[in-house]
Amino acid sequence: MSTSTALQGRTALVTGATSGIGRAVAQNLARQGATVVLHGRDRARGEALVKEIAADGGTARFVAADLADAEDTLRLAAEAGAVDILVNSAGLYEFAPTAASDVASFDRQVAVNTRAPFLLVGALAPGMAERGRGSIVIVGSSAARMPAPVGAAYGASKAGAEVLTRYWATEFGASGVRVNTVSPGPVRTEGTQAMLGEHIAMLDKANARGRAGDPDEIAEVVSFLVGPASSYVNGAVLFADGGELSALPS
């Protein structure tokens, strides 16, 4: 059953909704009454999540699309239709030293992490502005500000999304559309498990909390940013990293 009506009557598009943070975000928004358009690449997983949300009292539908493809990204926007909330949660990370990375890897990460949000906002934000309301959230990453020996392309793509957030907040803010970024630190997801394998415990040493985050914790931050409680928050980067960035010199 829905646990809140804060987002009743709103429609949300969540990219990367079939796993990890995106899945938790989609479930949370549905519980608050939003009709959720779920994006992913795996139709079976997407349709299974639609049924799961319905069993919980929510409403959702699934649209498959490859965000590495510009035309497919624009098709996703068209099929989503008029939305009040856009959560760009889909992300691609291929951690490797720069010399071991190729052009195709760089292009894929920028396409999914930076270009896809750019295209979706360009397609959907004008409609929000015409209706006088809307909220857009980019799921960024602390990697944009926490350099490491590997993952330069990923960090750059997420830093680009932060810059876009500030520009969009300025471009659309006066029209009633807010744009913000939530920047997670280490979070235990299927993706990080696949990437780190037996070294997953490393995530628990990456911040001042002494543990990795849970996707549901990031979803709560997203819900705050798209909801009425954050009506005066625009152009912000909200860090949900357990204190990871507190280790950086000021």
Automatic annotation (TrEMBL):
The entry's keywords: Oxidoreductase
SUPFAM superfamilies reported in the protein's UniProt record: NAD(P)-binding Rossmann-fold domains
Organism: Streptomyces apricus
Family of this protein: Belongs to the short-chain dehydrogenases/reductases (SDR) family.
Lineage: Bacteria, Bacillati, Actinomycetota, Actinomycetes, Kitasatosporales
UniProt xrefs under Pfam families: adh_short_C2
Descriptive protein name: SDR family oxidoreductase
GO molecular function terms listed in the Swiss-Prot or TrEMBL record: oxidoreductase activity
